[in-house]
Design goal:
Elements (H helix, E strand, L loop, with lengths): L4 E9 L3 H12 L4 E4 L26 H14 L3 E3 L3 E5 L5 E5 L3 E10 L3 E3 L5 H9 L3 E2 L2 H4 L7 E5 L3 H11 L4 E5 L9 H8 L4 E4 L2 E8 L4 E8 L5 E5 L2 E4 L3 E3 L30 E3 L11 H22 L1
Parallel strand pairs: 1-2, 1-6, 2-3, 6-17, 8-15, 9-10, 9-15, 10-11
Antiparallel strand pairs: 4-5, 5-6, 7-16, 12-13, 13-14
Helix pairs in contact: 1-2, 1-7, 5-6
């Protein structure tokens, strides 16, 4: 065997709440886990200023601080945390092969996939600016809606998730303006009807975002454009929510792991097991419903326990 190939008992790909929780459990079970942090160490939470719904932090905690704590806890028990990301896999044989940064080859007894998902954004410079400042752009109403109580917000999207998030925001915010690019919703009739019947939700059809406006630090308004007339208007808002979907980071697994039609990994119900023995999944790479840090951590725990039992069965 080539000296460039490293043998690993438990490889964890990804470093969000699922990955680090799996690492904590795996290291405590003497599985000697190696965790590669991926292209976004800490995952989506590193773009979140305040996390107030993580149990055990009554005063709240910042996303980056929370992920540093999880990393330190995993390392305390012996997890080997490394920079780098998986660029290729081969799960066709009894040895699970993973390549890191296109160069380093790993042969793994078990693999835990916790690569997460990436929220889709419009791509406007102003949108990305206020996302980075933490000043009013979000892709998760459940995570961040609480910060906009009794304020006016704008949400972009036309599917079931957008309708669900708009309805959620309507319970917290003074007014919710919903921007739909086409003449009709893509959502199911029942979800579309729900937002239409909600008094403090205003729906603007044939309307797209032209610019997110602010003072450099926080959002103050959104300039929108009617796609039919070309007319623009500014909508006062302190929050701008993007609900146009998520993309699971699963492309490198598609030749070996069963994915659903949108790219999420399909696990055996009630477990973290994939269709490949010895390969497990936790977090948002398999979850298109809840997408919360706490649910990701729970499935990361499941993945480590399932991997431990798999290794025990091979002895």
């Amino acid at each position: 065997m080539s000296e460039t190939i490293e043998k690993i008992k438990c490889l964890i790909i990804g470093s969000g709440p699922a990955g680090y929780t799996a690492a904590i459990y795996a290291s405590r079970a003497n599985m000697n886990p190696v965790l590669y942090q991926g292209t976004q160490p800490g995952g989506q939470l590193t773009t979140t200023n305040e996390v107030e719904n993580w149990p055990g932090n009554p005063e709240g905690i910042t996303g980056p601080e929370m992920m540093i704590n999880l990393q330190l806890q995993a390392q305390r028990f012996g997890t080997d945390v490394r920079d780098g990301w998986a660029t290729k896999v081969d799960f066709s044989g009894p040895i699970h092969k993973v390549w890191i940064n296109d160069t380093k080859e790993l042969h793994c007894e078990t693999v835990i996939i916790s690569t997460g998902a990436s929220a889709k954004y419009l791509g406007l410079d102003s949108e990305q600016h206020y996302l980075k400042t933490g000043g009013g752009v979000s892709a998760c109403a459940v995570c961040d809606g609480f910060f906009y109580r009794n304020q006016e917000v704008v949400i972009v999207g036309a599917g079931d998730s957008a309708c669900e998030e708009a309805h959620y925001l309507s319970k917290l915010c003074k007014k919710v303006t919903m921007l739909v690019r086409s003449e009709q919703f893509r959502a199911s009739k029942i979800m579309a009807e729900r937002v239409r019947k909600t008094e403090n939700i205003e729906i603007l059809l044939n309307t797209e975002t032209d610019e997110v406006l602010g003072d450099g630090q926080v959002v103050t308004a959104v300039r929108v454009k009617n796609r039919t007339s070309g007319a623009t208007q500014e909508i006062p808002a302190t929050g701008f929510f993007v609900a146009i979907g998520h993309k699971p980071n699963t492309d490198i697994f598609k030749d070996f792991i069963t994915l659903d039609e949108t790219g999420y990994i399909v696990s055996i119900p009630g477990t973290s097991k994939t269709n490949v023995a010895g390969v497990f999944v936790g977090g948002d790479a398999a979850d298109h419903v809840y997408r919360q840090a706490i649910t990701a951590a729970g499935t990361g725990c499941m993945a480590a326990l399932d991997a431990e039992r798999y290794l025990a069965s091979k002895e």
